[in-house]
Each structure stands twice: as structure tokens, then as C-alpha cells.
Amino acid sequence: MNIIILGAPGSGKGTQATRLAERLNLRHVSTGDLLRDAVAKQTPLGKQVESTMAEGKLVSDNIVLDLVKGAVTVHDPDDPWDGWILDGYPRNSAQAEELEDVLSSARETVEGVVFLDVPGDVIVERLSNRRTCTECKSVFNLLNRAPQVEGKCDDCGGDLVQRDDDKPETVRERLAVYEKETLPILDFYELRYDVHRVNGTRGIDEVTDEILELVSA
Ligand code: AMP
Known about the structure:
By secondary structure, the chain is an alpha/beta fold. It contains nine helices and eight strands. The strands form two sheets. Strands 2-3-1-4-8 form a five-stranded parallel β-sheet, with helices on both faces. A three-stranded antiparallel β-sheet has the order 6-5-7. The model has no long low-confidence stretch (mean pLDDT 94).
């Protein structure tokens, strides 16, 4: 099963994609995680995208397409996954169209498109209180999923930090980019697929259960 999960920054895409990937044995393809990893390792790609990401802007379409292409068109009989879940891609209409082309050339199909619906004021509150583990990437929220020990990850004990792009000035830019570039692709998907709109303001488990039910129906 191949799934695309759409939603604003902070809508819970990463959290839900991780859980769905575990439950459905899917490869979790997160462009944000792949890019952050490249920045952390200071690879040539990481150095190239670092300042764009820190400003909350989108990195170039070619760069992300290269990251995604191989992961969504695996035809290896030993591939251990039963499909993939794309998180953070596509982010604009050019990427959505490129993805359709890549998938149709590879004869891949998309079985589920999920849109996590969360209002803007909730997003701002979530992002400013989000803390991420530097080691295992688990995500916490100081308001409703606080770590048991301040500054430390419950899962692995790693240090929790605020992502550079979760600082207030950058959050404003990311939301502006989301509204201008990403939100319009919902229409693109609604014309082609049965998009599952899910209320993302509820508890994490409830949201996961609803998505599982919708994509398995
Ligand atoms: P995310 O973790 O998905 O919020 O992504 C963090 C940052 O990575 C974004 O603000 C962009 O700078 C960059 N990024 C992630 N995915 C994409 C994409 N599909 N297209 C362009 N830039 C992206």
C-alpha cells in the first residue's frame, strides 16, 4: 500500500506517518528528515540546503525529487516493505505533477491520500512547543506530550531541542509558504483521488485509528 500524507507543518504528519509505517509495514519517506540528516552530517547536499531550511523556505524541486524518486519506485524482490508513506512531499503543484509522472512511469499506484486538518492557531501553538530528540527524532510537546524528564527523550534519553525552523519568525514563514504553495495541491489530489480528510486536533491514537480505518476500507 502506498500512502501520501498531507497537512500543514505541525499537523502531526511525521508522528502519524511513523505510526502508520509501523502498523502497515511501510517505508517512511520523510523529505524533511532526509534533509535534516544531510544538514546534521554536513554532506554537500546538507550544506546546500541549510540556509534555505533555516529560513523556512522550500528547497529546490530537483533536490527533493532526487531524494524521493528512488524510495517510491523500488522494484527489488528483497524489499522488506509493503509499500511506502510519503511525508512532506509533494509541497507544491510542480512536485505533485512530477510525482504523478514518476509513479506512472514506474507503474506505481497510490492507494490512500490523507489530509490532516488542523486550524492555524493550533498549528502555531504546537510548533512553538514542539521539541525533537536529537538522537531518535521522537517528537514531544511541552503542552500535551511533555517529556518525563525536562529536556530528555522518554524513548532513548537523548537531548530534546527546538528545531531551528520551529522558532517563531520561521514558523510564520513556513505557514505562509504552506498556504501559498502546498494547500492548493489539495485540489490537485481531490480531482484524482478520494482524499481522506481527518480532523488532526484529536488525540494521537484516535487519529491513527481513523486513518487506518479509512485507508483499509
Ligand atoms: P518538514 O520537516 O517536512 O516540515 O520539512 C522541513 C523543511 O525541509 C521545509 O521547511 C523545507 O525547507 C524542506 N523541505 C522538506 N520537504 C520539502 C519538499 N517536498 N520541497 C521543498 N522543501 C522541502
